[in-house]
Structures are given as structure tokens and as C-alpha cells.
Amino acid sequence: MAAILPRTVRRAAEAALSLRSMPPRGAGHLARSLGGVSAACSNAGTFSVEFVPWHNGGGILHRAASVDPTAVVEAGAVVHSGAVLGKEVVVGSGAVIGPSVSIGHSTRIGYNVALSNCSVGEFCTIHNGACIGQDGFGFFVDEDGQVKKKPQMLYARIGDHVEIGANTCIDRGSWRETMIGDHTKIDNLVQVGHNVVIGKCCMICGQVGIAGSATLGDYVTLGGRVAIRDHVSIVSKVRLAANSSVTKDIQKPGDYGGFPAVPINEWRRQTANLRLFSKKDGVKT
Q: How many CB atoms lie within 10 A of CB 276?
């Protein structure tokens, strides 16, 4: 009797665990309706209350997510409810795909990327640590002197063939959606504020800061550490030298530089004159 009792207890415990891990009624039908999710849910014992492990990579996803069977969700990645992952998408370890986020065909999401309130097009690359779709920096002071948050309710839309560097942040919109055009390339450590619209085929180098509601045309190139003021518009085919600051609209294509940014030849004359005057002052002293 003493030898039989431990075996009975063990079997009872195993039966209780199997009952606890069974999916609720109708969950199998839901999984089958989502296409790719059904492959992960073939073993009913793998169900948890909300999330299931993904068969291709070891990550976990919500039962209400729609994931193509060819998508890879690596171990440690999480895909939330309503998210849509297209064919051959790769989601790196530690990444979080928020509710209702959509990712297009063959897009690669790096390690520890956070996506929320956004859509990402096809053939994009988002490098490690990037954050897309978080609230923008919008506040006001009310009549009582209290700082209040402005609603940030819209989305960030990333086009096709876009590359976004490590630790870059792109805020979602408040009065219009934040937009990144097709084939635009963004370097590391770039800040794109809420409501910003960037055209196609733009090149944005590291540590650029684009304040809220700015508008950039197509084929715009921003050198390293360029700063763009809020609500400024820049036409297509403008190039800005590194460390420049745009404080007003740029309405003609061409090369610009300086603080505030002016046509490149004018900025070079300003720099040469400043050096000349400083040398003269040095001789007098």
C-alpha cells in the first residue's frame, strides 16, 4: 500500500495539470480560423489562458493574433492580440508586437524592438531596440497651472523597403498620423516626433531630431545631428549638412547648412568671415 500511494498521488497531480492547461471551449475553432496559429495550437496541452507558444522559433503569441505559418517568432518575443504578421516575417528575441500591429511580407524585426499603434510595410528592417508607435511628447498647462497630457490617439505608418536603425524612436500621431515613406533609410538614435510626415527615399543620419508636425518631402538627406523645428516644412531634394538646425520652412531644393540653416554657399561665407575676423582680433591683442 505504501508503494502504491505515491504513484496514485502522482497520477492525480498529472491529471489536474492537464485539465488546467486545456483550452476553453471554442478555442480550437478560433485557432483554426487564424491560419498560421493553428499549427502552434495542434497540441491542446500547450495552451495558457491567453497566449500559446509558436511552432516556428519558440516565441509566444496571443490566440487572437493572425500569424502566417512561415513567420518566425524567436524565443522571448511576444505577439499580442489582433496583431497580423505576413509571410516570412522574422521577429527577434525580446521584441514585443503590440495589439493590432500589422507587419508586411519579409520584414525583419530585431532584438528588443517595441511596436505599438503602428503598421510596418513589406521588406522592411527594424534594428535592435527601436520603438515605434509610442505616445508623442504633447502637453499643455491648464488654467490651474497643472501640466496636462494632450491625447495621442493615432498611428505611425511605415512604408515598404524602409530601414530603421537601432534605438530609433518614432512617435504615433495626435492630429495626423506619423508617416515614413517607401525606401526611406533612418540611422541609429533618431527621434521622429508625433505627426511627422517623411517622404520617400529620404536618408536620415544618426542623432537627428525631428520635432512634431514637421513635413519632409521626397529625397531629403539629413546629416548627423540635424535638428528640425516643429511644424517646419522642407521641400523635396534638400540636403542638410551635419549639425544644421532648421528653424523655418525650406521652399527651394538644394544644399543647406548652419544654425539657422541657410543655403550652403552663404553658410560657407559666414564660416570663412568668422574665421577671418577671429584671426584679426587675435593679431590686435
A: 10
Chain centroid to CA 201: 18
Query: 3-class SS at 85?
Result: strand
Which residues, other chains included, contact 171 with Cβ-Cβ below 8 Å and sequence gap of 6+? 133, 134, 135, 136, 137, 152, 156, 178, 192, 193, 194, 196, 212
CA distance linking residue 215 with residue 113, whole number of Å: 25
Identify whether 55 is a catalytic site residue: no
In eight-state DSSP terms, residue 258 is T
Distance of CA 189 to the CA centre of its chain: 12
Nearest CA-CA partner of 72 in 44, 35, 109 = 109
pLDDT in tens, 22-78: 343 333 433 343 444 544 444 444 445 789 999 999 999 999 999 999 999 999 999
Q: What is the pTM of this model?
A: 0.81
Q: Which helix (H) or strand (E) holds 18?
A: helix 4-20
3-state SS, residue 169? strand
Q: Which of 80, 105, 194, 231 is catalytic?
A: 194
